[in-house]
Design brief:
- This protein has helices spanning 4-26, 222-230, 250-268, 280-288; strands at residues 36-37, 42-43, 51-58, 61-74, 82-90, 99-102, 113-125, 131-139, 148-153, 170-171, 173-180, 196-199, 205-208, 211-214, 239-241, 274-277.
- It has 289 residues and is α+β, with helices and mostly antiparallel strands.
- The chain folds into 2 domains: 4-28 and 186-288, Alpha/Beta hydrolase fold, catalytic domain (Rossmann fold), CATH 3.40.50; 36-180, Jelly Rolls.
- Strands 1, 2, 4, 7, 9, 10 and 11 form a 7-stranded antiparallel β-sheet that branches. Strands 3-8-5-6 form a 4-stranded antiparallel β-sheet, with no helix packed on it.
- Helix 1 runs parallel beside helix 2 (222-230) and helix 3 (250-268) packs across helix 4 (280-288).
C-alpha cells in the first residue's frame, strides 16, 4: 500500500531547496534609473538633417508622462530646424524592438532656438517592467537645416541609460509626470517576472465535487505556493496551478496543459511562462514540449 507520510518529508525538503534557488533567481533588480538629468554643461557635435539621436532611460519607470523638457541650440540658417521628440517603449535592455508610444501633441515648427524647450506630448502610462528611450529626430525644410546642438552632461550622470553622442554622455531632459518606482522590495506592484504554473505529480491532484484541485490531503504544495506569494506572486495573475487527472495518458494531459498555458498568456499578455513541475508533472511538461 502506498504510504503518503513516508515520502512527504523528503518531498518537502526537495521543494524547499528548489524554492530557495527559484526565489533568488527571480528576485527583481533594483532600478538605478532617474527621470531627470539636468546637467547641460556640454553640447553635442553638429547634428545633420534627418538624423535621429537616442537617450536610453532604462526600466523601473512609472506614472503617466505628459511632456518633456530639452536644451538645444538651433540656428535660423535654411529657415530653421524642427526637433521632434518621441518616447519609445522596448521589451528589453537591448532596445531592439522599440515602438513609439508618445509624440508631440502639436507638430513642432521650423525655428531657431537657444535654451530650454518644453514639448507637450501624448499622455502615456508607463509600465515599470518595460524599457524606455527618448528619440530626437531633427530636420529642416527642403532637406537641409542650420547648425543644431543638443546639451547634456559630459560625464555619466544618469545611471539608467546613455545618449548616443561622443561628446554628451547623457542628454538634458525632464520627464514630467514620471516617477521612479521603488523596487527594493518584492511586492505584486513592482515584481517583473513571467507567470508561474505549478504542475503537480502523481497523486498530487484530487477531484472534489467534480473539480480537480491541488492536493487537499497532505497539502504538499502549500508551502511552495505560500513562498511564491510571499515573494510577490499573485494567484490567478502571476501564479497558477494545473491540477489534473493523473490516471489519464500524459499525452492527453499535455494537451490540457497547452490550453492552460495559452490561457495564462492571454491573462498576462505575455509570450512565455515558467513551469515548476514535480514527478509526473515533469513527464507531462516534457510531453508538451
Amino acid at each position: 500500500m502506498f504510504s503518503f507520510k513516508k515520502n512527504t518529508f523528503w518531498y518537502l525538503k526537495i521543494f524547499q531547496g528548489a524554492l530557495l534557488l527559484l526565489s533568488i533567481w527571480l528576485m527583481p533588480k533594483i532600478a538605478l534609473a532617474n527621470v531627470v538629468q539636468e546637467d547641460f554643461s556640454t553640447s553635442t557635435t553638429l547634428i545633420f538633417s534627418g538624423y535621429t539621436k537616442y537617450q536610453t532611460l532604462g526600466t523601473g519607470l512609472s506614472g503617466t508622462t505628459t511632456s518633456i523638457d530639452l536644451v538645444y541650440y538651433a540656428d535660423t540658417t535654411y529657415y530653421g530646424v524642427r526637433v521632434t521628440p518621441h518616447l519609445e517603449e522596448c521589451s528589453s535592455e537591448n532596445y531592439g524592438d522599440c515602438v513609439t508610444v508618445s509624440g508631440p501633441v502639436i507638430e513642432p515648427n521650423y525655428e531657431s532656438w537657444d535654451g530650454i524647450k518644453s514639448v507637450d506630448w501624448d499622455d502615456y502610462a508607463l509600465n515599470h517592467c518595460k524599457y524606455y528611450r527618448i528619440s530626437l529626430f531633427a530636420n529642416g525644410p527642403f532637406g537641409s537645416m542650420g547648425p543644431l546642438h543638443y546639451y547634456g552632461s559630459e560625464n555619466d550622470s544618469y545611471l539608467g541609460g546613455s545618449f548616443s553622442d561622443i561628446l554628451v554622455s547623457d542628454l538634458y531632459f525632464v520627464l514630467h509626470g514620471v516617477d521612479l518606482l521603488d523596487r527594493s522590495a518584492n511586492t505584486s506592484d513592482n515584481l517583473c517576472v513571467d507567470p508561474v504554473i505549478i504542475v503537480p505529480g502523481f497523486l498530487g491532484s484530487f477531484e472534489v465535487s467534480g473539480t480537480w484541485i491541488m492536493d487537499p490531503i497532505l497539502h504538499v504544495y502549500d508551502d511552495l505556493l505560500a513562498t511564491l506569494e510571499a515573494n510577490g506572486y499573485v494567484r490567478d495573475t502571476t501564479l497558477f496551478t494545473f491540477p489534473y487527472d493523473w490516471r489519464n495518458s500524459n499525452v492527453d494531459t499535455a494537451l490540457l496543459l497547452k490550453q492552460k498555458i495559452n490561457g495564462v498568456k492571454a491573462i498576462c499578455n505575455c509570450f512565455k511562462v515558467d513551469i515548476v513541475a514535480h514527478s509526473m508533472g515533469g513527464l507531462v511538461t516534457r510531453q508538451y514540449v
